[in-house]
Every structure is written in C-alpha cells, then in structure tokens.
Design a protein that fits this description.
Its EC number is 6.1.1.16. With 457 residues, this protein is of the alpha/beta class. Bound molecules: zinc ion. The site of zinc ion has 4 residues, from loops.
C-alpha cells in the first residue's frame, strides 16, 4: 500500500532507513503519512520536546561523525552528530521546474554533491537524501499559460531537463525525488494540524496563513528575523506582514485541489516541511539549500515543522551554499537578473570535471566568482593532475627515465597528504585546503619525476 501510494524510490529510502537504524526511526505509512509520521516516535530516543526554549541550538544526541560543520542554526562550527549511527537523513530543497537550470543552481548542487561524497566515501556514513520537486507554483502557471500547455506538462518537461543536467554534471541523484503534486493529501493534513494547534488561520478568501507572531521569539531562530518589526502591508488578507501562506486560494481558471478551505494549492514552504516529515518523521539531520533560501524559506519551514511536531528542534543542521557571482559585477547569477548561463550551454564548452574543480577551489559557503580566469585555473589544475598521473604511470612502466626516486620520502608525503586532506574535509568540508594539499604532493612528485628522457616504444 505504502509502496503503491508514494513516489517510486520512497520505499527504498524507507527500507534503507529501517535497516540502518534497526527499526528505530519513525517511518511514515499510509494515507496522510505526513500527519501520522509525527506520531510514530523513535523507540531509541524520545522526541526533544520542551527541552529548552527560544532560539538556542540544541546539540543533538547520537553518533559523532568526526566532521565539524558550520551550522546556520548556531552560526558556528559544530560537531556533526547523526541521530542514528552511520546514517545521515538529508532533505535538499529541489528546483522549481519551469525553465532550464543555470550555473547558479549547478554550483549549489555540485557543492552539496561533493559534501555528500565526503560524508559517505571519506567518513563512511550512508546518506538518505530526499529532494522535493516544486511542480506547481506561480512561475510554472505563468509560463504554462504563455506556452498554452498545462502546468503539469510543463513541469514534467523541465523536471526531466533538470535530472539530465544533474546527470551531466555527475551529481548523484537523491535517494528519492518527491513531487509536490503527488503529496497534496499529506500537505493538507499537515496544515490541518498546524491550524488545530492555533498557529495558522484561514481567511474568507480561502487562503490559510501561518501566524508568525504565535511563535513568539522562536520565529527567527535561523536568520535572526523578528516578527514584530513594523513593515507596511499592502493589499492582503493576512493579519501580519510576515505571516506566510500555507494554502493559496485558486484564481479563476487556475489548476487547483479541493481542500477544507476551498479550491487551491499549497504555499511554497509547506511543501518541504511536509515532504521531509513524510519520509523522516519528526527529526532531520541535515537540511541544505542555497543561501538565499535561508529566509524566508527555511525559517518558515522550521516554524511550520516545529509546530507540527511539537518539538524544540526539527532539523539539526542547516547548511547553505554561497552565491555564484559574475566576475567583475559582483552580481549573483540569477534568472531575475537575466545574467545566467544555462548548464547545457556551459557544458558545450566546458566539462563537468572542470566545473567541479572550479567548485572545489572555494569553500562551499563562500560566494564564488565565475569567469574565464577562474575556469582556466580549474582547467590548469586538472591538467597538472592528469599529467602527473601520466608521468607516474610512465615511471612505473619504466618508460620515464629520471634521477633515482626517493620513494621513502614520497610514501611519507603521501601519508601526510592523505591525513591533511581528511583533516581539511573534517573542517567544514574545506575542499580548497584539500586541493592545495594534493597540489603540493604533485609539486613534490613532479620534482622527483623530472624526466631525463622519455622512452617511447
Ligand atoms: Zn525547501
């Protein structure tokens, strides 16, 4: 039943979670899984309700990974502790599928793909990653109207397009993709429970809003935004300017779903809270997205989810990637600024490995400048690595004649480099330091491998 109802792959994610946690994690089941998920508690560790107040980050209980990561929730580096040993539960905000993805998107997904590979391959944990696909929203409806096709048809085209781009960039797919339009009953249940707890209200226009002031000082725990700041509200049926839509009444001729509040569709933030909770229940290790998602999107996700689960801390670690800036202008690459390069165009002249090296050379949290110089630097580094490997192979085959190699020195340097690379990864996934350590090893290797003559056969 569960497997038939939920998106393909979710069953696999659930199996993975169950086996890895020996049945101790909450796993949703059946209709209205979002509503039920919160009720199925972990047997191993009870929910952390009422264990603290306000905005302070609560250090999770669980197993240390040996990694320190910057956590946007505490605004400092923290030990990465997984609730279930060896398994990281990870929710990634996915794309809104109405057009081709651009390099700004690529940068965020590649950087988090690198982090995922470090967590799994270097530190030996499994990752169960869920990515939500926003396949209904204002931009999709607008574009579909312009093209005179249905919004869902448009969304399917660009969802497939996004997946192809990610594959071309060698980004591992999430354990499961979950579409918003396939989780509407769960979203409605989620909103109903928030309303029942007194944190949301419906209006006569058929909209439902989250009541931000009802959260008190807990609203703003991620981004230090205070709900009581005076701002002017224009033409809205909200009670307060920072209140945000959980459910939007449909306009005439718009795609809609029936709900207790009339015909409409979900607001943006509620999608991610519901989808994450449907799979992972009341607790999540890692939540990621670009830095511009921190406010209001992640702040609002936190408010909704903590009200829904009645817990003090839903997501334990929020990681945000820095912007991709256009060299010289200091503008971030974005659709609205019309300064973007699509992933497809980029890959006609550059390779996925070159882009990945470009990403590796900066810390994932930093803004990164994109331009010919930085891409050329990345290409040169890759070239240096491959010519070193080729020389080393030639030496091993006796095809490269050079002065005697001090192997003991190289072995020692290799061991040191391995340790330095791992230490750099453990320090908030510092890939630029790891690349520097490898280039240093190559530099020393090259000095020893300096060919007297290259023997050709
Ligand atoms: Zn999201």
């Amino acid at each position: 039943m569960l497997q038939a109802r939920l998106a393909p792959g979710l069953a696999a994610a659930s199996r993975c979670l169950r086996s890895a946690s020996r049945g101790e994690l909450p796993v949703a089941a059946g209709r209205g899984a979002g509503a039920e998920a919160g009720l199925v508690r972990s047997r191993a560790s009870p929910p952390r309700c009422c264990s603290g107040v306000g905005r302070k980050w609560i250090k999770p209980t669980g197993r240390e990974t040996g990694i320190q990561t910057y956590n946007s929730l505490s605004r400092s580096k923290e030990p990465l502790i997984l609730a279930n040993a060896g398994v990281a539960t990870w929710y990634s905000c996915g794309p809104t599928v109405y057009d081709h993805a651009h390099l700004g998107h690529a940068c965020s997904y590649v950087r988090f793909d690198i982090i995922r590979r470090i967590i799994t391959k270097v530190f030996g944990n499994q990752v169960v990653m869920v990515m939500g696909i926003t396949d209904i929203d204002d931009k999709i409806i607008k574009r579909a109207n312009e093209m005179n096709i249905s919004p869902l048809a448009l969304a399917r085209v660009y969802e497939e397009d996004f997946k192809q781009d990610m594959a071309a960039l060698k980004v591992l797919p999430p354990t499961v993709y979950m579409r918003v339009t396939e989780n509407i009953p769960q979203i409605i249940s989620f909103i109903e429970r928030i309303m029942a707890s007194g944190h949301a209200y419906a209006t006569s226009k058929g909209n439902v809003y989250f009541d931000v002031k009802s959260r008190g000082e807990r609203y703003g725990k991620l981004t230090s935004v205070y709900p009581d700041v005076q701002e002017e509200m224009v033409d809205s049926d909200k009670r307060h300017v920072k209140d945000f839509a959980l459910w939007k009444a449909a306009k005439p001729q718009e795609l809609y779903w029936a709900s207790p509040w009339g015909k409409g569709r979900p607001g943006w933030h509620i999608e991610c809270s519901t989808i994450s909770s449907t799979v992972f229940g009341s607790q999540l290790d890692i939540h990621t997205g670009g830095i511009d998602l921190a406010f209001p999107h992640h702040e609002n996700e936190i408010a909704q989810s903590e009200v829904y689960h009645q817990c003090e801390q839903w997501g334990n670690y929020f990681l945000h990637s820095g912007h991709l800036l256009i060299k010289g202008s200091q503008e971030k690459m974005s659709k609205s600024l019309k300064n973007y390069i699509t992933i497809k165009d980029f890959l006609t002249k550059n390779s996925a490995d070159e882009f990945r090296m470009f990403c590796l050379r900066s810390k994932y949290r930093s803004a990164i400048e994109f331009g010919d110089d930085s891409m050329n630097d990345a290409k040169n580094l890759l070239q240096a690595i491959s010519s070193f490997i080729s020389d080393a192979n030639a030496y091993m085959k006796g095809q490269l004649v050079c002065d005697p190699i001090k192997e003991d020195v190289l072995w020692e340097m290799l061991a040191n480099t391995k340790a330095n690379v791992k230490a750099a990864f453990a320090d908030d996934f510092d890939t630029s330091r790891a690349v520097a350590a490898i280039m240093d090893l190559i530099h020393h290797g090259n000095r020893q491998l300096k060919a007297v003559t290259k023997v050709t056969h």
